[in-house]
Every structure is written in structure tokens, then in C-alpha cells.
Amino acid sequence: MKLIQGILQGKVRPLAKAISLVEDNLIDKEELIDQLYPHTGKAAIWGVTGPPGAGKSTLVDKLIDRERSQDHRVAVIAIDPSSPFTGGALLGDRLRMQRHSLDPQVFIRSMASRGHLGGVSWGCSDAIKILDAAGFNTIIIETIGVGQTEIEVVELADLVMLVLAPGMGDEIQAMKAGVMEIGDLFVINKKDLPGSEKLKAEIEYVLNLSSDNPEQLPPVILASAQKSEGIDELWKKLSTKYQQLVKSGYLSARRKERIKKELSRIILYKVHHLLDKKIALQDNIDNWAEQVYLKKDMPYTMVNKQINRFKKEMRLDDSKN
Ligand SMILES: Nc1nc2c(ncn2[C@@H]2O[C@H](COP(=O)(O)OP(=O)(O)OP(=O)(O)O)[C@@H](O)[C@H]2O)c(=O)[nH]1
Ligand SMILES: [Mg+2]
After folding, report:
1. Which atom of ligand 1 is least distant from the CA of 224?
2. What is the pLDDT of residue 116?
3. Which residue's CA is the nearest one to ligand 1's atom 13?
């Protein structure tokens, strides 16, 4: 396939086309992904998350510089949390990193987090495979860390960087609930603003409390993306942390876990569609609802009747289920 050749050569047009294909979740993508898959596994995948406006994109922009100074090719996927129809954050993220758009070794793409079949992580995990096969050394996924979708996306990364900034008290309280555990590394951005030292101390305190191994606490780094301060330290810590993950075997464990989740998700998705079709839900649901509304049938009786009909059609032996 010409598209595959183009991707393996790292050409921008085929890349963009392939990512659109996975974004729309078209069936043609399956062959594409499977053919690219043997070429994947080389890229380092960084997840960057944190509350809105913490400075994630500005930070990513600066990290791209550091990566480029090592001659690394970098791809960024910015997950746009708005609906596919508004595209607000998309514009902000693009602007923040715009100066790299002329560099052919940097690829920046936004993906909508809502309104797509199978959810964002599906499209995103395929996009990562495409970029990986295209030979990008580093793939950065930026998501806004508030909801479940974002946590799912972060699960696609090898290493997760949580970006916080002073003056966002409520968000940080909310984040402590679930998002704190997923950070391999913490950045307190906007250190030029008051309250950053205090926030760093707070985060370290929370991390200390929740950790069973105080020796291995994730690093907390003060930075100012805007003023390019602390970027070198952050970048070095990122590299060290990544090496640690590789050496400890933790990276391969994480990747296997990811494959497990992905296979489960795809299987369940496909089974769901198969069942939907077999049971002819869409064709019958109005009628079934009417029967239940008129109390001619009870809800569970109705459901079990349909399931039994389906089992018979599929010749599923009841005793085995
Ligand atoms: N004072 C200060 N402002 C910063 C710093 N870094 C980023 N900003 C500003 O903070 C605002 C948000 O920055 P972004 O990089 O877009 O933040 P983000 O986390 O990507 O935002 P979303 O993607 O919308 O969640 C912008 O106005 C930046 O210029 C910093 O170190 N100090
Ligand atoms: Mg952003």
C-alpha cells in the first residue's frame, strides 16, 4: 500500500491522512494498523496532563526545543476536549506550538475527545502507532486532566507528566482524587507567580502521604514554561525517569497492560456491534418499549425473551452460559 510506504518514510501527507482514517474509525484502518504494527515500539510516549490553563502546551513547546536539540523527531497529539464543532482549545494548543510548524521533523495534530465512535483513546492509540511506525522518537500526548477520558488517554503513555500551577486550588483538590496516582513526574509551572513554592510543598506532602515507598517518590519540578526556566532540569528528569522505567522492566509491563486493555476494548466493541445487529435492537426497540409501556410485557421478561431468542438463533447452549 502506498499509504504505508509514505508513513514508514515519515512523510507528512500520508501521516495526516492515516490519522484522519483512525479518527473516523473506518474499517480500512484495521489493515493499515496491522501492517504498521511490526514497525512500532521504538518511540517514547509521554503523556502530559493537568488542569486547563496550567501551561501544558507552553511547556510542551519548550520540550520540543530540547528534543530537537538532540535531533529527535517529535510528534504531539493535543486532545481537544471541546466538541468536534467548536474547536476552542485546538486553536490555543496550535498557537502555543506554532513556531515548530515549519520544522518538518515536528508533527502536531489535534484530536477531538468527543463525538467519535469508540471514544478518544481508540483513535489516539491508533494514531500513536502510526506516528511510532513513522519513526518519531518522541510522541507527546497533551490532555486536560479532569475526567475519565483524560485518564484513559494517559493510560496510553509510557510516562505521565502532571502539570500544575499556582492559583488553581479547586482543580488541585479535584485532581487529588484520582489523577495524582498516575503522575510519574510533577511540574509546578508558572514559578514566576506567587504560591508556586507552597504548591510544590503541598504536592510533595500529598505524594508522601499516599506512597508506601518514600524512597521512590515522583520528582516535583518547579518551572516557568513562559520564561523558559527549569526546562533543562525537567527534560533531564524526564530522560532519567524514562531510563529507569526501561531498566526496571516497568515499561514493558505497562505496555503489556496497555495491549491487554486495548484488545479487551476492541473485542467488546465488536461483540457489542455484532449483538446489536443480531438482536435487531434498532428495528425492534420501539415495539418492545410500547409493549412494556402498555404493561403487556414486563421489562425483565421482555429482555430475557429477546436474549433467549438470540441464544436459540446463535445456538448457544444455555447450560454453558
Ligand atoms: N505567568 C506564567 N504564565 C504562563 C506560564 N506558562 C504558560 N503561561 C500562560 O498560561 C496560559 C495557558 O497556557 P497554555 O500553555 O495554553 O496552558 P494549557 O495547560 O495548555 O491550557 P489548555 O490546553 O487550555 O488546558 C497562557 O496564557 C500562557 O502564556 C508561566 O510559566 N508563567
Ligand atoms: Mg494546551
Report:
1. 31
2. 47
3. 55
Closest CA to 149 of 99, 113, 115: 113
- 89-129 pLDDT, tens digit each: 455 556 667 778 788 899 998 887 654 444 566 788 999 99
User: Ligand 1 pocket check: which of 57, 58, 153 to mutate, most ligand atoms within 8 Å of Cβ?
Assistant: 58
**pLDDT the model gives residue 211:** 75
Q: Is 200 helix (H, G, I), strand (E, B) or coil?
A: helix
Pocket of ligand 1 (CB under 6 A): 52-58, 89, 92-93, 96, 144, 189-190, 192-193, 224-227
Q: Are 96 and 58 in contact (CB under 8 A)?
A: yes
Residue 246's pLDDT is what? 95
φ, ψ of residue 112 to 5 degrees: the values are: -75, 145
* Amino acid letter, 24: D
* Angstrom distances, CA of residue 69 to CA of 9, 64, 65, 106: 22, 9, 6, 12
CA 153 to ligand 2 center in whole angstroms: 15
Whole-number Å distance between alpha carbons of 23 and 116: 7
Residue numbers of the chain with a pLDDT score lower than 50: 83-89, 115-118, 321
Enter the C-alpha cell of residue 13.
501527507
pTM, full prediction: 0.88
Read off the pLDDT of residues 172-186 as tens digits, 9 standing for 90 and up.
Answer: 665 555 667 778 999
Contact 68, 103 (CB under 8 A): yes
Domains and CATH numbers, the chain: 2-247 (3.40.50.300), 279-320 (no CATH)
CA distance 59 to 249: 28
Tell which atom from ligand 1 comes closest to the C-alpha of 227.
Answer: 31
Sequential DSSP letters for 123-166: HHHHHHHHHHHTT-SEEEEE--TTSHHHHHHHTT-SEEEEEE-T
- Confidence at residue 86, expressed as pLDDT on a 0 to 100 scale: 42
